[in-house]
C-alpha cells in the first residue's frame, strides 16, 4: 500500500474545539491511569547508544515478578524479577534481586553462553563480567536505574555467536 | 495467547511498510505548515524550531506531530539534543499505543525502544519529517503484531487479562480529578466500538483514517461518521454536567 488512502467525503469533517477537548481529556485519563514509566525515555536513549555497535538485538521474551519472601520480621517483602531475552543466536535469562544496600544482584545464564564476556551498560557506568563454562554469570553491587546487557563473543565462546548480543534496556 | 479481535484484523502483512511511509499524516490536518514537501526546505524551518500555530490546544496530538518533526529534523542535521527531545516527546504516545496493542508493561518498554532503534537505523527513508510520529506508531504496531503472533505460537496458552486491549480501569480513579472521573464514567457507558474508536483517535496523529481503520477493523468510510456519532453521544451525555 502506498500513498494516502482515499479519505471519503465527510470523513474529514473537522472536529471542533469541544471534540478536541474531549479527546485531550481521554488522553489525560490514560496518562493518569496507566502512566508511562518515568524512566522509559532514559531507557530508550540508553538503548540508542548501542545502535552503532555491529550487534544482534535481543528482544524481551518474558518478565515476571515474584515474591521472594521476607528477609526478617522487620524487612519488607522483596520482589525478585526474572527476565528472559532472546536473539537469533542467544537466549539470556536474568534473575534480579535487590541487595540490602540498595544495589542489585544479577544472576544470569546465557545459552549457548560459555565464556561470553558480559557487559552491563548503565546510565552512569558499565559493569563487566564473564560467563563460566556453563554460561552462568553474576553481576553484583549493580546500581539501580536503566541498564542493558551486551554479551560479547570471545575466542573460547560458541562460534554460533559471532556478533555481540544487545538486550533492550530494563529498569533495574 | 490470542490476538484481540479489535485490533488490525488485516494483520501485519497488510500494514504499510514504514519505509513506504511517505505520505504526510498531518497534510489534511490543521497543524502542518510546510506545504512544499521538499526535504530540503525543512532545514531553515527547524533550526529555529517549527512554530506551533497558536490556536492549537496544548496536549493535542497535532502539536506533537509538528514538534516531533522539528526535533527529528534537528537530529538529522546533527543539532545536539535533537534525538533526546524526539524521544521525550513521542515516548508517552508510543507507550499508550503499545498498551492499546495489548502488550504488558515490560513488553511495551521493549517495543518503544525497538521502534526508536528502527528509526535510527532505517529512518533515513522518511522523506517528510512530519511523518515521523506516524512512522514510529506504525512501526510499533506492526512489530507488536508480529510479536504476538510469535508468542501465540510459542505458548499456545489461554489468553489472560494481560492480553486484552488496554482500557484503564476507573477503580484506580483516586488518581483522577472529579472532572476526569465524570468524563471516564460517561465514556464507559458508550458502546465498546465507540470506546475503542475514541481511544484510538485520541492517540492517533490526526486525521489518520487508514491507521484507525487498521486498529479498529472499521472500514475507512465509516470512521468519520462513527467518530462524529461517538463524540456526539459523549457530548450529549455530558450536557448539563459541569465538564469544562
Automatic annotation (TrEMBL), chain A:
<protein>
    <recommendedName>
        <fullName>Carboxypeptidase regulatory-like domain-containing protein</fullName>
    </recommendedName>
</protein>
UniProtKB/TrEMBL annotation, chain B:
<dbReference type="InterPro" id="IPR039425">
    <property type="entry name" value="RNA_pol_sigma-70-like"/>
</dbReference>
<feature type="domain" description="RNA polymerase sigma-70 region 2">
    <location>
        <begin position="86"/>
        <end position="144"/>
    </location>
</feature>
<comment type="similarity">
    <text>Belongs to the sigma-70 factor family. ECF subfamily.</text>
</comment>
<keyword id="KW-0805">Transcription regulation</keyword>
<dbReference type="InterPro" id="IPR013324">
    <property type="entry name" value="RNA_pol_sigma_r3/r4-like"/>
</dbReference>
<keyword id="KW-0238">DNA-binding</keyword>
<dbReference type="InterPro" id="IPR007627">
    <property type="entry name" value="RNA_pol_sigma70_r2"/>
</dbReference>
<dbReference type="InterPro" id="IPR014284">
    <property type="entry name" value="RNA_pol_sigma-70_dom"/>
</dbReference>
<keyword id="KW-0731">Sigma factor</keyword>
<dbReference type="GO" id="GO:0003677">
    <property type="term" value="F:DNA binding"/>
</dbReference>
<feature type="region of interest" description="Disordered">
    <location>
        <begin position="1"/>
        <end position="59"/>
    </location>
</feature>
<dbReference type="GO" id="GO:0006352">
    <property type="term" value="P:DNA-templated transcription initiation"/>
</dbReference>
<protein>
    <recommendedName>
        <fullName>RNA polymerase sigma-70 region 2 domain-containing protein</fullName>
    </recommendedName>
</protein>
<dbReference type="GO" id="GO:0016987">
    <property type="term" value="F:sigma factor activity"/>
</dbReference>
<dbReference type="Pfam" id="PF04542">
    <property type="entry name" value="Sigma70_r2"/>
</dbReference>
<dbReference type="InterPro" id="IPR013325">
    <property type="entry name" value="RNA_pol_sigma_r2"/>
</dbReference>
<dbReference type="InterPro" id="IPR036388">
    <property type="entry name" value="WH-like_DNA-bd_sf"/>
</dbReference>
<keyword id="KW-0804">Transcription</keyword>
<feature type="compositionally biased region" description="Low complexity">
    <location>
        <begin position="9"/>
        <end position="20"/>
    </location>
</feature>
Amino acid at each position: 500500500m502506498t500513498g494516502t488512502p482515499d479519505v471519503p467525503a465527510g470523513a474529514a469533517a473537522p472536529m471542533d474545539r469541544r471534540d478536541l477537548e474531549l479527546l485531550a481529556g481521554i488522553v489525560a485519563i490514560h496518562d493518569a491511569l496507566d502512566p508511562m514509566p518515568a524512566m522509559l525515555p532514559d531507557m530508550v536513549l540508553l538503548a540508542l547508544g548501542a545502535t552503532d555497535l555491529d550487534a544482534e538485538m535481543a528482544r524481551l521474551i518474558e518478565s515476571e515478578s515474584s515474591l521472594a519472601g521476607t528477609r526478617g520480621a522487620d524487612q519488607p517483602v522483596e520482589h525478585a524479577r526474572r527476565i528472559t531475552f532472546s536473539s537469533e543466536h542467544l537466549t539470556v535469562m536474568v534473575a534480579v534481586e535487590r541487595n540490602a544496600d540498595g544495589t542489585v544482584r544479577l544472576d544470569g545464564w546465557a545459552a549457548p553462553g560459555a565464556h561470553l564476556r558480559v557487559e552491563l551498560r548503565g546510565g552512569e557506568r558499565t559493569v563487566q563480567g564473564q560467563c563460566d563454562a556453563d554460561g552462568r554469570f553474576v553481576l553484583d553491587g549493580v546500581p539501580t536505574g536503566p541498564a542493558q546487557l551486551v554479551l560479547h563473543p570471545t575466542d573460547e565462546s560458541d562460534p554460533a555467536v559471532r556478533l555481540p548480543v544487545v538486550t533492550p534496556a530494563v529498569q533495574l | 495467547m490470542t490476538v484481540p479481535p479489535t485490533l488490525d484484523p488485516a494483520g501485519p502483512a497488510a500494514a504499510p511498510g514504514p519505509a513506504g511511509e511517505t505520505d504526510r499524516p498531518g497534510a489534511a490536518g490543521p497543524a502542518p505548515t510546510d506545504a512544499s514537501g521538499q526535504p530540503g526546505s525543512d532545514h531553515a524551518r527547524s533550526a529555529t524550531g517549527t512554530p506551533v500555530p497558536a490556536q492549537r490546544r496544548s496536549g493535542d496530538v497535532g502539536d506533537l506531530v509538528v514538534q516531533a518533526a522539528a526535533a527529528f529534523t534537528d537530529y538529522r542535521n546533527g543539532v545536539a539534543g535533537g534525538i533526546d527531545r524526539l524521544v521525550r516527546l513521542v515516548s508517552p504516545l508510543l507507550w499508550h499505543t503499545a498498551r492499546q496493542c495489548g502488550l504488558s508493561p515490560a513488553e511495551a518498554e521493549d517495543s518503544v525502544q525497538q521502534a526508536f532503534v528502527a528509526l535510527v537505523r532505517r529512518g533515513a527513508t522518511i522523506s517528510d519529517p512530519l511523518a515521523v510520529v506516524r512512522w514510529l506508531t506504525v512501526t510499533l504496531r506492526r512489530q507488536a503484531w508480529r510479536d504476538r503472533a510469535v508468542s501465540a505460537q510459542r505458548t499456545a496458552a489461554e489468553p489472560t487479562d494481560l492480553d486484552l486491549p488496554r482500557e484503564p480501569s476507573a477503580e484506580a480513579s483516586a488518581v483522577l480529578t472529579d472532572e476526569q472521573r465524570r468524563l471516564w464514567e460517561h465514556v464507559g457507558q458508550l458502546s465498546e466500538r465507540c470506546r475503542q474508536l475514541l481511544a484510538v483517535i485520541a492517540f492517533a496523529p490526526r486525521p489518520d483514517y487508514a491507521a484507525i481503520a487498521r486498529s479498529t477493523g472499521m472500514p475507512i468510510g465509516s470512521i468519520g461518521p462513527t467518530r462524529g456519532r461517538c463524540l456526539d453521544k459523549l457530548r450529549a451525555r455530558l450536557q448539563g454536567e459541569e465538564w469544562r
